[in-house]
Amino acid sequence: MRIVNWNVNSIRTRADRVLEFLSRQDVDVLAMQETKCKDEQFPYLMFQGVGYEVAHVGYDQWNGVAIASRVGLTDVEDHFAGQPGFHKDPEKPQQLEARALGATCGGVRVWSLYVPNGREIADRHYDYKLRWLDALRRHALQAPELAVYLGDMNIAPFDTDVWDIQAFAGATHVTEPERIAFAQLEEAGLVETSRRFDAGYSYWDYKGARFQRGEGMKIDFQLATPALAARATGGFIDRDERSGKGASDHAPVIVDYEV
Q1: Site annotation (Interaction with DNA substrate): which residues (predicted)?
Q2: CATH architecture, domain 2-257
């Protein structure tokens, strides 16, 4: 089973490109992040027309996650148990955001994740990010035997996961608390399968010609349960999808599993 995660950065802008990618790379399951649309705006018919079932959760023009599968799609959940919410005003209700979507595809429990960015270290969003990751860790402790948590984690776990660690001094994505939170996902029993096959970058900012200069970050991952990780047979980051007109600022992360 070929499972892919990809921050598409607006599915309505890139639907044709995503469909071409599904065909070209013979994808079984695609977990998408940052779809940037409400549920009723998602282009379901385009995916159904090429043999994919789709689940999506999106409340407005921000965030949004989806799963497209040609090997079945059942038991859909639009958030995970314990997932915290957020509002910039601490006195107002902290509302769930469209950042997690689970479904069973071909016997594998798949979670498409868009981890909060954190914005700045002094921002409430940074604390929200850490709480969100801790809730995810606790959820992963109860994962079924075959499960994968994948998507845009918004963390670079190692200095080598950014093009220049000095450029990130005082910034999010590389702080010790974030990296500890990522490591705790692995301590909870998840195995990072994607790095095993391709340790290169998965994201390049649009600004400053970062892609052309090779100045990227590795922040998109697949974390599988041990039983599923043991069945990972290969994978790569499709950097061709970061090039050309209309590209997302992220590249798809591909891992093959014997299921």
Answers
A1: 250
A2: 4-Layer Sandwich (3.60)
